[in-house]
Amino acid sequence: MPIDNRMSKEDKEKLLNEAINDTPEPTEETQDPQETTTEVGKDQPDEEVEAPKQPKTPPLEERYKASTQEGQVLHLKNEKITKTVLEAKNLPEPTEDELKQSFPEWDDMTPTEQRLAKTSVQSERKFSKVYEAIQEGQKIDEWAKKVDEFLLTGVTEFKRLSGNEDEFKSFAMVTR
User: Fold this and answer.
1) Are the C-beta atoms of 111 and 44 separated by less than 8 Å?
2) What DSSP line would sit under 46-93, residue for residue?
3) What is the maximal distance between C-alpha atoms in the chain?
4) What is the pLDDT of residues 112-152, one digit of tens each?
C-alpha cells in the first residue's frame, strides 16, 4: 500500500513497520474478538452470539382489533371519496348563461375559445368536488383522533365505557 500524505503519522509508521517486517500488526479491523483460529483457514466463535432481541409484538387479538378499527376508518374514507368522485363525474355541463356570466367576452370568443372555456369551468367544478372529498377524508381522520383521545380520558369519567372501548369506537366511526 503506498504511503499517502493525507494519512496520520501513526498510520504511516504502521505501514512502514509492516513493509519492513512483512508481517501486519493486528489492528481492530483485522482481529475479531469473537473469533479465534485453531487451524489455518478455520474460524470458530468463542461463544454463541445471541440474536438481537426483537420488540414484543402485541397479542393477536389486539392486532386484529387495531386492524379492524383502521379498516373501518379507511373504508369510511374510501366510501366518501368514491361517492364524491362519482358525483363529480356526473356534474351537468355548464349552461350558456353560466358561461356568459363567467366570461363576459363570451360572444366575442371563437368556437375553440368557447370550448376551452367550457372545459375549464367543468374542470374547476370537478376539482372543487374532489377537493371536498379530500377535506371530508381529513375530517374523518380528525374524528378518529378525537374518538381515540376521548377513549383515553373518557373511560375514567364514564364507567359504562370501561371494557367496551372497541365497541364504542366502532359505533362512533360508523355513525360519523
Assistant:
1) no
2) SSPPPPPPPPPPPPHHHHHHHHHHHHHHHHHHHHHHHHHHHHHHTPPP
3) 97
4) 999 999 999 999 999 999 999 899 889 888 988 888 888 88
pLDDT digits (tens, 9 = 90+) for 60-99: 887 787 788 888 888 888 988 899 999 999 999 999 999 9
If one counts every other C-beta atom within 10 angstroms of the C-beta of residue 147, the result is 21
Cβ neighbors of 57 (< 8 A, separation 6 or more) are 63
What is the value of pTM for the model shown?
Answer: 0.52
For residue 99, with 0-12 CB atoms within 10 Å meaning exposed, 13-18 middle and 19 or more buried, which class applies? middle
CA distance 37 to 24: 16
